[in-house]
From TrEMBL:
Gene3D superfamilies: P-loop containing nucleotide triphosphate hydrolases, Signal recognition particle SRP54, nucleotide-binding domain, Signal recognition particle, SRP54 subunit, M-domain. This is Signal recognition particle protein. It catalyses: GTP + H2O = GDP + phosphate + H(+). Residues 101-297 form the SRP54-type proteins GTP-binding domain. Composed of three domains: the N-terminal N domain, which is responsible for interactions with the ribosome, the central G domain, which binds GTP, and the C-terminal M domain, which binds the RNA and the signal sequence of the RNC. Keywords: Cytoplasm, GTP-binding, Hydrolase, Nucleotide-binding, Ribonucleoprotein, RNA-binding, Signal recognition particle. Transmembrane segments: none annotated. The gene is ffh. Its main location: cytoplasm. It comes from Paucilactobacillus nenjiangensis.
């Protein structure tokens, strides 16, 4: 899980502060020392850390905060605001051209996720704007690169312009742009070559492509797992090309946080999107404030809600809400819900987006085995339609039948039904407007 160590250390620094009856200058100094170490250990750029700590200290020192109401809370707020600022404050949208096509050039080192991300971006444009993107395959050094782009493109039904590997990339781009104009594609996404390291020949080629294509957007794809190296790579590309935005990939892995926190401050270029998985739908707009909440372990409810909206069927969600209100949620709905939730990705990742959960010891080491979900489903599948609609029918003899049908122990059947009934009770409370519990959870 991304940022785990950083979140843990920041939270520990803050909670020590919270336990103090009074916060003194010395306490603040100690907290800032811990925060500084936590950031350095997370591989955040040294200068970025220095500036960050200076800002927080300046704002937190002085009587206003320390002698005001709830100083620890105020310091957390300052840290949150400064982290957000370090990452760029606001989400920055994709540049668009007044005339079609809008030209997007993808750059980055080999393995950063350029081709995958080109596909994700095209799919996003298709889904959100009904766009008709086209790819240009300008990586002529690895035949496999063109094949990979073709495979990605096919999976999302986007055309690829390619001339094989024997033509100069600049010429490929020139012809590709003509084709896009002729076919009225509204976006062109150019997949360029990557190397394992920045080298001059590659940079010259990219500069030539830039000069010819005059892209509206030159996106640099960097791998978040590479920490500070990602920042150096970004600096290198940025010094030759007019990079307009960064896409940080592999934020679903256990990256320490250095790249996310350093890139904007070091290069001055905004992170526009983040890749959070290998699926074509795993690309999210980068929101500095939400990322800060996530890093501080305060959860990322907004992204969670957006994810749910994207993955959940709206009619289905409405039906479920109605059922919850009427208290008629049954095992058929339960099955639908389980399937939809499973589509959102690993349960433990989803849980960690809930405020206060990221470092909650109760779920820290939770690994929800997909097999457990399958066992629960098997039990539900063993129910008759009448039982699914009316769980009250499930007396001991029927439960024994379910256990035999699903080949699961009877205790598991009993536990599952008990959990279902508890969930139903909770749903009733929430839908009848009793939000007190929820608000408490969100720290309100
Ligand atoms: P390229 O050489 O820059 O074009 O990189 P690729 O697009 O081939 O990606 C390299 C590897 O990283 C592939 O196995 C991708 O599936 C994987 N990858 C790309 N983006 C992500 C991401 O956001 N999360 C994860 N987990 N893997 C990713």
């Amino acid at each position: 899980m991304a940022f785990e160590g950083l979140t843990e250390r920041l939270q520990s620094a803050m909670s020590k502060l919270r336990r103090k009856p009074k916060v003194t200058e010395a306490d603040l100094k100690e907290t800032m020392r811990e925060i500084r170490l936590a950031l350095l250990e997370a591989d955040v750029n040294f200068t970025v850390v220095k500036d960050f700590v200076k800002q927080v200290r300046e704002r937190a020192t002085g009587t206003d905060v320390l002698q005001g109401l709830n100083p620890a809370q105020q310091i957390v707020k300052i840290v949150d605001e400064e982290l957000t600022k370090t990452m760029g404050s606001e989400a920055v949208p994709l540049n668009k051209s007044d005339k079609i096509p809008t030209i997007i050039m993808m750059t980055g080192l080999q393995g950063a996720g350029k081709t995958t991300t080109a596909g994700k971006l095209a799919l996003k444009l298709k889904n959100e704007e009904n766009a008709r993107p086209m790819f240009i395959a300008a990586d002529v050094y690895r035949p496999a690169a063109i094949d990979q782009l073709e495979t990605v493109a096919k999976s999302i039904d986007v055309p690829v312009f390619q001339l094989g590997t024997d033509v100069d990339p600049v010429e490929i781009v020139r012809q590709g742009l003509e084709e896009a104009k002729a076919k009225h594609n509204d976006y062109v996404i150019i997949d360029t070559a990557g190397r394992l390291q920045i080298d001059e020949k590659l940079m010259n080629e990219l500069v030539n492509i830039e000069t010819l294509a005059q892209p509206d957007e030159i996106l640099l794809v960097v791998d978040a797992m590479t920490g500070q190296n990602a920042t150096e790579t970004a600096d290198g590309f940025n010094s030759k090309l007019n990079i307009t935005g960064v896409i940080l990939t592999k934020l679903d892995g256990d990256t320490r946080g250095g790249a996310a926190l350093s890139i904007r401050a070091v290069t001055g270029k905004p992170i526009k999107f983040v890749g959070q998985g290998e699926k074509m739908t795993d690309l999210d707009v980068f929101h500095p404030d939400r990322m800060s909440s996530r890093i501080l372990g305060m959860g990322d409810m907004l992204t969670l809600i957006e994810k749910a909206q994207q993955d959940f069927d709206e009619d289905q969600a409405k039906k479920t809400m109605d059922k919850m209100r009427e208290n008629s949620f049954d095992f058929n709905d339960f099955l639908d819900q389980m399937e939809q939730v499973q589509n959102m990705g690993p349960i433990e990742d989803i849980m960690k987006m809930i405020p206060g959960m990221a470092n909650n010891p109760a779920i820290k080491n939770v690994k929800v085995d997909p097999k457990d979900m399958d066992h629960i489903k098997a039990i539900v599948y063993s129910m008759t339609p009448a039982e699914r609609e009316n769980p009250d029918l499930l007396n001991p003899s029927r439960r024994r039948r379910l256990a035999a049908g699903a080949a699961r122990p009877i205790v598991e059947v009993n536990r599952m039904i008990k959990q279902f009934n508890e969930m139903k009770k909770m749903m009733k409370q929430v839908s009848s407007g009793n939000m007190a519990g929820m608000e408490q959870m969100m720290g309100g």
